[in-house]
Task: structure prediction
Amino acid sequence: MDVEVVGKFLSTLPEDDDHPYRTGPWRPQTTEWDADDLTAVEGEIPRDLDGVYLRNTENPLHPSLKFYHPFDGDGMIHIVGFRDGKAFYRNRFVRTDGLAAEDEAGGALWPGLAEPVQVARRDYGWGARTLMKDASSTDVTVHRGTALTSFYQCGDLYRVNPFTAETLGKEDFNGGFPVDWGVSAHPKVDDATGELLFFSYSKQAPYMRYGVVDADNNLAHLTDIPLPGPRLPHDMAFTPNYAILNDFPLFWDPKLLEANIHLPGFHPDMPSRFAVIPRRGGPQDIRWFEADPTFVLHFTNAYEVGDEIVLDGFYEGDPAPVDSLTGDSPPQAGGAPKEKAFRFLALDRLQTRLRRWRFNLVTGATTEEQLTESITEFGMINSAYGGLDYRYTYAATGKPGWFLFDGLVKHDLRTGSEERFAFDDGVFGSETAMAPRSRVAGGAVPAEDDGYLVTLTTDMNDDASYCLVFDAARVGDGPVCKLLLPERISSGTHSTWADGSALRRWHQVDDAPAAIGL
Result:
């Protein structure tokens, strides 16, 4: 492995830091690396694996103003690229305005999720957006050959080179970016049309907006999705003809919000509501469907069957565990162990299970069913099936009581069967992306699971990190190769896969590491 340190940031975190999400598997990094010719410590890199795996991570450089929440850290992009049996690694901080300002100030300037907004030391002046720092640390997707990082509380989209991990500036949609509202995490790219679909939310009426960016990167559509009040949507879904948005009964307490106190609460007496809107429709075209009360952090896919929209996602059986921010020991109260205060992030506490909703566009009826007893989340699919009838979801299992991924599950949604792989004790994974096998032109149509799964691990036993590659058709067999990274990386979540041939249509040869000929 040919390794070079290309950047080093100064952290002001205390040496005796004891926060459970800034230590151990969540220990942040300060070094940026270039590593070519990654070493395979097990197996061999498949020669028909062609493209890049990208993962975004919360990676704090400075102590919080009062109470650190693991969603508050600065964004860091990790990239592992593959071609012709070789692989490279890059990691870089996302050069956000907030990172630059706090780096210059030598400390935190904005409150995080578990902190009162009144402690802010600087105001972005963002109108409808929150007073939190836009860390661009939540999600990453690729549109038109460029990676876009995003923030769950709405903000800018930062453009990142998918080969080098260098920040290229802010996305502006050819002058159409909705600066006043920003864009939330989890914008969706439709491989079939090249469009990017997104939503924004706000504390100001109409509380939600939905937009479409066309294949030429123009903001082609932006419309209001009127809601009864401020909400906390996190994800969306799409089909060839519709977008599906949501209004869940977990939101900021309206009375406390008047005092600028952002305390969420779950209202089990209220239904979940889903908005089905034509992809270029307006408020008058929205069809609302009601369902059992819950909160859904992530959807896996949606598709159309006859008169119905089918939507799959992770239903939370307990959206507000008793020791969450809405329970009896919120971080604001002090005195409770940090481990207890943040258990509400654990999948076993939230009771997250795959569920299917069906919305009948003729009758207006909603039906729903639980697809599995298994507790999983952060599901990924073969992106070629986005918006289409599909069969497989590749999801994460969680370490009980912790926001850490301890294994993979391949859900077969047609048969109900599951194939599992558990990491060793002390090893924690990332969201696992599906990478279709590269094929020559004119080859046979590949099966949905004909390809590979790629993830990054944080191995506390070896004090190291690895990139694992699995055969997507045989997850239970374990990884077909295991690549050593130059440093043990912080645990993290959201990821994506970008096909190499598609990227090369957008990039010059010198954009990519010459060592693997991308």
Summary: The radius of gyration is 22 Å. The CA atoms of residues 300 and 313 lie 5 Å apart.
